[in-house]
Design goal:
Tumour Suppressor Smad4, nucleotide-binding, kinase, Rossmann fold, kinase activity, phospholipid metabolism, alpha+beta, transferase, 2 domains
Length: 331
């Protein structure tokens, strides 16, 4: 990466998904902000169906930008973040997708009617560092691949849900399309047989419908799946969901919506939860820096809401404070 010229005006690079953004409005907003704050003309890179942002971000880095604005859905943000990991160059997230998972967990404004204000933050905000998840997956065909993720990786039922999401319905009603997918995924009663190792612990066996490894834990609808997850604590939060029958699923929803979403938000609520003598069998929470998982058969896999096919297992670790993120000064 070419180092920036200290005497030259700052410059932004924009990596955008043309399907997700109103490009004319975006270009106008960037032009206003860069002019108002004395920055040079931004450079632009359009993603393609074959490359959601990896190659474009590498091209952007060659021009030594001061910030890379990622405009698109979660796939675009993840691709840009993966390439920027460890470079010290900040990513500015401009949420334009359905889930906007990282933006929600950063508590950014996901209302697209406020696009101009969100663009301006890229030129006026401050920089903070967040952790990045790094995961090596074993493909069902015997190959392996490594990815970075910013929000969550999941195998089993949650990945099936994403794979089952109707893309046309998703375009019309946004993240609510996942409700339809959940209903169809729950018909699948298949249980995963999992061998896992957390950090330097011993190998353990478990059964679950889904295993989710989270760098952060809030989903659309303000659902707190991983209530203790933090983007900058150097740890993964992990949940294994293994409900049995209708009442098991009901217990999961009570745990996620009521206990995580309400009780854990107050000191009194946390005390009430601490008084509970028995853990909830349907939900098992773990925390650590490294997780190794082997499956007894190939299962669907997802990263940050993108379905990535079948895997036999994975090895994940936390890369602490590896990604610089541009945030609003009033955050």
């Amino acid at each position: 990466m070419t180092p920036p010229d200290a005497g030259a005006p700052k410059r932004a690079a924009v990596v955008y998904n043309p399907i997700k953004v109103d490009i004319d409005r975006l270009r106008a907003a960037v032009a206003v902000s860069e002019s108002e704050h004395g920055w040079a003309k931004s450079i632009w890179f359009e993603t393609t169906p074959d490359d959601p942002g990896y190659g474009q971000t590498r091209q952007a880095l060659a021009s030594a930008p001061d910030v890379v604005i990622a405009c698109g859905g979660d796939g675009t943000v993840r691709a840009v973040g993966q390439v920027l990991r460890g470079t010290g160059v900040a990513i500015s997230v401009l949420p334009c997708g359905t889930g906007n998972l990282l933006a929600r967990n950063l508590r950014l404004d996901v209302n697209t009617s406020h696009l101009e204000r969100m663009v301006d933050y890229a030129f006026t905000g401050f920089d903070g560092a967040i952790d990045v998840g790094v995961i090596e997956i074993d493909r069902a065909d015997g190959g392996s691949e490594e990815f970075a993720f910013l929000v969550m990786a999941g195998v089993g039922l949650d990945a099936k849900m994403i794979a089952n999401t109707n893309p046309e319905l998703k375009k019309r009603v946004g993240w609510l399309a996942y409700v339809d997918a959940i209903a169809r995924a729950l018909v699948d009663r298949e249980v995963l047989k999992v061998n896992y190792r957390l950090d330097d612990g011993e190998v353990k066996a478990s059964r679950a419908h889904t295993v989710i490894v989270g760098n952060c834990g809030t989903l659309p609808g303000n659902v707190h799946l991983l209530p203790d997850a933090e983007l900058d604590d150097g740890l993964f939060d992990i949940v294994m969901l293994r409900p049995e029958g209708f009442f098991g699923w009901a217990r999961v929803w009570v745990g996620v919506l009521w206990e995580n979403g309400v009780l854990r938000r107050s000191s009194m609520g946390r005390k009430l939860l601490d008084l509970r003598q028995k853990p909830v069998r349907a939900m098992r929470y773990l925390r650590g820096r490294r997780l190794h998982v082997d499956l007894d058969h190939p299962e669907d896999f997802q990263l940050d809401g993108d379905e990535l096919g079948l895997i036999n297992g994975f090895r994940a670790h936390v890369d602490p404070a590896a990604l610089v993120v541009r945030l609003p000064r009033d955050a």
